[in-house]
Design a protein that fits this description.
Helix content: 40-55%
Strand content: 5-15%
Mean pLDDT: 94
Number of strands: 19
Number of helices: 35
Distance between the termini: 17 Å
Largest sheet: 5 strands, antiparallel
């Protein structure tokens, strides 16, 4: 009997886990055919991380640095393992061994399910409610794009929130250890932007919990729970300390840190410039995508691909639209993979929850939603955005402010499911608060009908860029009219779709309130409608066409003719410039050490070099080639690219299927210089690069005068320095000179780990030419080495080991105590 009762109690939880696995596989069903999801950013990641992974496979050690892109940069935010962070093993266990990307969906499901259970939601309703969170469209879109760490960080948001609520509810030990565990998991998956945004929301939640405790005269309990959570935070941080230390150290010198260049004060912050940080800002009108997926057309595809919409155009206009690649997206963000759609059903229930749900939770969720939405507007709501960028700690370290909408995608389904919980507990609430029910319906379904009837009154169907391009040109009027007609049809189709779903769920709720159907039937209807809404929308963003054979995914790049020719050069270390979008390219790094690459947090000084020197030199080479320049013209162009030459750019790819252009003017791995030009500041240092011969002259910041001392330049004729051995984290040179020499190395300067040694003795090195390393080498024959040995990594790993042991022991002890308590309670 006891076993039967136990099974009965466990049944909904077992069904939930099995359902989550089955639905995840159904949605990602090509996985069952041995295919893999094609993810752009994962393909690029495989390119830029290849040198790091090759080094790991060959030596068993972490390189911590790679020269495969942007001249060289720390590997921390590319591919670095932290062996003493044991939380990764718990992360693997929670995924049940499911293949990628099935595991992402499963973690979405199970994480939100845990949160709803903590909120005392019926497990059957919690199962259904998990569909709403997991199938929020942005969460699916990022999986297709390959933002895997972001997906994992999103998955752990809900259980972390639930654990904190549990702690404040008085379950100090259980809530505290679950908070420590899920916070550790949240940090370990390494998407700090998502974690940061979650922290902002947790502050909001904390304020409302504090107010609630004050009202109930329970401040001692609040402070006790807060103290527990502080300890939990320490336990969560300790296993992750290595990554946090090295990332913090690197961030200050990355493009996320404050630039030393003096720029426009209106856009400069202590982190990213405002125009860059707000480049992806959600439009105010675009925010209706939470309710209407194609309010701005969805993703940035071709309008011509929508056959139904194209049929409405005049025949001659169809060709014009196709030839001019008119986009199906008419919002004002640079490019979009798809909208942030929370679900028409869920939005209706969210509004209903504002009337039916009581307590601090409702106000915290509403505040979080508004907070998320207004900050996502970015440059479209600049007073608030500027305040956060200028004054709120760390906010300016992150780009794409529209990403903060992930908070709304968390808060909206929570309140929506809490509304259903209230209705299930008290079906007559709809009859008792009928006015509020119809207000909620009118505010969503009614508004949709108005949008359907009068679309142009409320929305524009041209992007601002299109408005500026077309202007008042009467010759473009017919084209504009046809484009608007097609887009209005796309818009209205999704408006009516959302209205129908709201009408159906509202009808089901009303019938349930009249007790015409029971709870089981209602939940079944709710589940079917919710899946019909969310599952089908997300099929727009992940479907069979996005999967490919494993062989193709596992080998992301195939060497071109140019690549093969360059690979024949067995020189130890040189760089390659690919003229095809070099600074957003992972393919070149897969085969070579690239001048460019693909990373959103490259070193700040290298980004300055791209903006002020490299981009111009690249454009000059392209212009020469496009003007059908012969050997003489190309040769002259290569003489006049001092920055590329100091970066030892030995080959240039202009056509992958042709032979590369060799650059005989590359400076080499290291060279002696005869002259020094001092720079008073960063602006002067980078400006002077345009006017010097980098082979004979070095630009050095005056701050390094003490390291150089009374060095006097001398002739370097006949003196030599050559690279003997190359590893990404260890370079060995042999220097032979008759006099002391100022030596420039074609390696990126980064003082948080790189050490220079002359004949095994640590020697001070410094920065030259804005980004490179420089060293004074005495006369004679010497072994010169550079080793990357960041103290933050090695110290962090020692702390992480202690933290991992403490967290796991605390977890086992507290869970053991809870199990023992439950057994004792049953026996009583």
């Amino acid at each position: 009997m006891n076993n039967q009762n136990l099974f009965k109690k466990a049944l909904p939880y077992l069904v939930a886990i099995i359902s989550f696995v089955i639905i995840s596989f159904i949605f990602m069903n090509p996985i069952l055919e041995g295919k893999q999801l094609s993810q752009h950013d994962i393909k690029v990641y495989k390119g830029v991380s290849k040198e790091i992974k090759d080094h790991r496979a060959e030596t068993g050690e972490e390189a911590l640095w790679t020269n495969s892109m942007f001249g060289g940069m720390p590997a921390y935010q590319i591919s670095t393992k932290y062996p003493n962070n044991w939380i990764k093993h718990i992360h693997q266990i929670l995924q049940l061994g499911l293949p990628r990307p099935v595991n992402f969906l499963f973690l979405y499901f199970i994480g939100f399910f845990i949160l709803l259970l903590i909120l005392r939601v019926d497990p059957w309703l919690a199962l259904i409610g998990s569909f709403a969170f997991a199938f929020s469209s942005y969460f699916i879109i990022i999986i297709q794009a390959g933002h895997n760490t972001k997906a994992l960080a999103l998955a752990y948001m809900a259980p972390l929130l639930g654990s904190i609520i549990l702690t404040y509810r008085g379950k100090y030990l259980l809530g505290g250890i679950l908070t420590a565990l899920f916070a550790a998991l949240e940090i370990s998956v390494n998407h700090l932007q998502i974690t940061y945004y979650l922290l902002l929301f947790l502050i909001i939640v904390g304020v409302f919990i504090l107010i609630d405790h004050i009202k109930r005269n329970e401040l001692p309990q609040f402070f006790k729970a807060t103290a527990v959570l502080i300890i939990a935070a320490i336990l969560a941080v300790m296993p992750n300390i290595t990554n946090l230390l090295v990332t913090s150290e690197y961030s200050a010198q990355s493009m996320r840190g404050k630039s030393e260049l003096v720029k426009d004060g209106n856009i400069q912050t202590s982190g990213l410039d405002k125009d860059y940080a707000t480049q992806w800002s959600y439009g105010i009108g675009e925010s209706w995508s939470l309710l209407i997926p194609n309010v701005k057309g969805g993703g940035s595809g071709a309008l011509a691909a929508n056959k139904k919409a194209m049929e409405l155009m005049e025949p001659q206009m169809r060709q014009v639209v196709s030839q001019n690649r008119i986009s199906s997206y008419w919002g004002d963000q640079p490019i979009m993979s798809g909208p942030t759609y929370a679900g028409a059903i869920i939005i209706f229930l969210f509004v209903l929850g504002l009337f039916y749900v009581k307590g601090w939770m409702k106000w915290a969720l509403l505040t979080g939603t508004i907070f998320s939405l207004t900050l996502a507007w970015g440059k479209n709501f600049m007073p608030l955005t500027s305040f956060f960028l200028d004054y709120f700690p760390l906010y300016n370290k992150f780009r794409a402010v529209s990403m903060i909408l992930i908070l709304a995608e968390l808060t909206i389904p929570i309140l929506a499911i809490l509304a259903v919980k209230e209705i299930i507990l008290k079906p007559r609430i709809i009859q008792e608060k009928q006015k509020q029910f119809f207000i909620a319906f009118g505010a969503t379904g009614g508004l949709l009908l108005i949008f359907y009837i009068l679309p142009t009154v409320f929305f524009s169907f041209l992007s601002q860029m299109e408005i500026d391009a077309f202007g008042d040109n009467p010759r473009a009027a017919e084209l504009v009219a046809n484009i608007e007609m097609a887009r209005i049809s796309i818009f209205k189709a999704d408006v009516m779709r959302s209205f129908i779903f709201i009408l159906l769920i509202a009808s089901a709720l009303y019938v349930y309130s009249l007790e015409k159907i029971n709870k089981t039937i209602f939940l079944a209807i709710f589940a079917v409608l919710l899946l019909a809404d969310m599952f089908t929308i997300n099929r727009r963003y992940i479907n069979d066409s996005h999967f490919e054979r494993s062989r193709k995914i596992d080998t992301p790049y195939v060497a071109s003719t140019a690549d093969k020719a360059i690979l024949a050069d067995k020189s130890l270390d040189y760089r390659v410039l690919n003229l095809g979008n070099p600074f957003n390219d992972g393919a070149t790094s897969y085969f070579h050490k690239s001048i460019g690459g693909y990373h959103s947090a490259k070193l700040g000084r290298y980004q300055d070099l791209i903006d002020l020197r490299l981009q111009k030199e690249v454009n000059d080479i392209i212009s020469t080639l496009q003007s059908a320049g012969g050997f003489t013209e190309v040769n002259k162009a290569l003489q006049n690219v001092p920055t590329l030459n100091m970066l030892n750019t030995k080959y240039i790819i202009y056509n992958p299927q042709a032979q590369p252009i060799p650059n005989p003017y590359a400076n080499g791995n290291a060279w002696f210089v005869e002259h020094i030009e001092w720079a008073d500041n960063a602006n002067e240092e980078i400006d002077k690069l345009a006017s010097i011969n980098t082979k004979t002259t070095a630009i050095i910041d005056k701050r390094y005068q003490s390291k150089i001392g009374d060095y006097k330049s001398s002739s370097f004729a006949g003196n030599t320095i050559k690279l003997l051995n190359y590893k990404p984290n260890h370079l060995v040179y042999e220097s032979n000179s008759t006099t002391e020499q100022l030596t420039i190395f074609s390696e990126i300067y980064y003082d948080k780990g790189w050490n220079a040694y002359i004949d095994g003795e640590l020697s001070p090195h410094f920065r030259a030419n804005y980004t490179l390393r420089a060293l004074i080498i005495p006369a004679g024959k010497h072994k010169v080495e550079f080793k990357f040995l960041p103290e933050s990594y090695y110290t962090g790993e020692k702390i992480a080991l202690v933290g991992s042991i403490l967290l796991i022991l605390a977890f086992l002890a507290i869970i053991g105590k809870e199990i023992k308590y439950c057994k004792t309670k049953k026996e009583e």
